[in-house]
Amino acid sequence: MSDLLGPLLPYIGLPAQPEGNLRLAITLLAWLVVALLVSAAMSVGRRVSLRTGTDYDDVLLHRIRAPLGVAFLFAVIADALSPWGVAALGRAIRTATTIGLIYAIVWLVQRLVIDVVLHLAQRRAASSATSIDDILVPIVRSVIRPITFGIGTMFALEAAGLPIAGAALLVGGASFVLAFALQSTLEDVFGGVGLVVDTPFAVGDVLRLEDGTLCQVAGLGMRVTRLYNAHDHSIITHSNRGLVQQAIVNLSRPTPDMGLTIRVQVARDSDTRLVWERLTEAGLAHPWTLGDTAKKLPAMRRRMDRLVRVRDYRRAFHTIKDLQRVAAEGDLVQAVERLAGHIVEAASRSNVLERGGFTRDERSLVDADLDRLRLHVREVKRSLAVWLLMVRYTYVEGRFCTLTPDAEQRLEDAVRAAQVAGRNDGNQTLERIHALIDDHFATGFTRVAAYAAAAKGWVEAALEGVAAAPPICLPGNTPHDEAYFLTQRQEAHIYEAGFAAGLTDRAHGGIPDIDQVEEYLALFAEWNKKMQILDSRVRDLVTDTRRSGGVRLDERLHDLRRWLGSDFKENTPEWKYPRTPLVGIGDRLTYELKVYVDNVKLSHFTRVAQAESQIRLDVLHLLRDQSPAVTFEGD
What we know:
By secondary structure, the protein is of the alpha+beta class. The protein is built from 19 helices and 9 strands.
């Protein structure tokens, strides 16, 4: 430092080449001035960063402070001791400070990469359409420390006077020996590389292994993959080599639904039409199975009658919320179908118009198509936000979500009287129970309908951006790392509106199960990312089209249409609706009730098992308790 200041020293009455204690004093004073300037700059930078809308600068200034201070200290010591570098002790101290400076820089680089660069990459991965970055970021995070430490060690060895070439030769020889000793480990590492390249699954996907185990991918590393076993509530650490060699069924792709088959045998002389109708009714009436919304809603309402008949009041009351959820999902499906239909029409029109180039009038037609495209995307966002709020309500528990003990007793007495009156006619009993439900559950129907209407109003106000709009989390508009805190504000608003309390408020009703809270937040994060990707794709398509004059617009629209069906929301094909084929004719007729259970990741991965048990019970009531009864056996 004194050499750098040499030309300026004569102006203040000091020699240009100071020596001894004077040189040390000038060096320390100069570094003190630099330290004060850097500290002032850091303070100013911190004040400025607090006023920005991002936290990257806050994290950057906070995380580099310690390693930068250590590096600065070693730099001061090395510079101050440079005149004494001839003596053996001085050389040793200077070498030690240089090595310390190298490792301080390594520390600084690690913090910059892990806490800033990878943090930015992780945010980008949260809203990107590909799954490679979701896998790659955690792997880079796990290997960045040993890599930077190894590079720093090479420079430290050189500073200590050891030749890097010799060290590299030693490392190479050791690696050659270790390659044989750690052959299986290296196979696991290359298996991890294969998983990154091929991406057969991503973190969060549900897999079925060869042994039938149902697992969710909890983390992917270079050597092992961590799987969450929902059945045992445990973490399985599986080698990547073993996963690559398995035939893995990814239940999350293309959609997270799963087929379920229930075999039923009935008497040979049974009315085949009647059996088909009742089995199909059981499959269609369950709230977790896929089906035509127009047929599913009445079937679910009829299932309420059967639940009340067997005194399952809690599940019957919960069906009121499921009815609104399924209706909201039906609105979402229709919004997506309208968007897909418009994309196909716009692509076909663009394909015809762009031949020979667009005229001014034709360009106006294209602009109108793009404007309508954005309106359709807005409708999808509106329907999606309402559906997510209705999903949230199905988790909520509290005094407004069930019958009081007195009301339950009155209903039970009324059901018993209805059964006595219609003892010889099961259908008449169900008709009486249907009327009882309309009466005894009237408060529940009214309250759930009020919540659904309020949810639509909240979403509309949030989309319009009106003054004092409710703090509703709109999918596509919610930053990934702030979703939890924004959800808490949303819950506070819902509580103030009179619809139960916050997510984990047991006292006044809410979502008391922390696993359900995490499940709902994960579901919102999944759809938030999908909506962000849809918004981004449409925004880029509109911008590029107006900039380039519509070149290849038809191809880009078709790509968007394919992505919409494969990665956003599938338009459920009819072959996934409940089916009841006759598969065996012998002493008895054998039917198979085939249904698809929606989103097997929910309900703590027990949806399929729960749905199977509940559908079997409903089949029992439909065949045995309704008139005419059907003699049957089940598998």
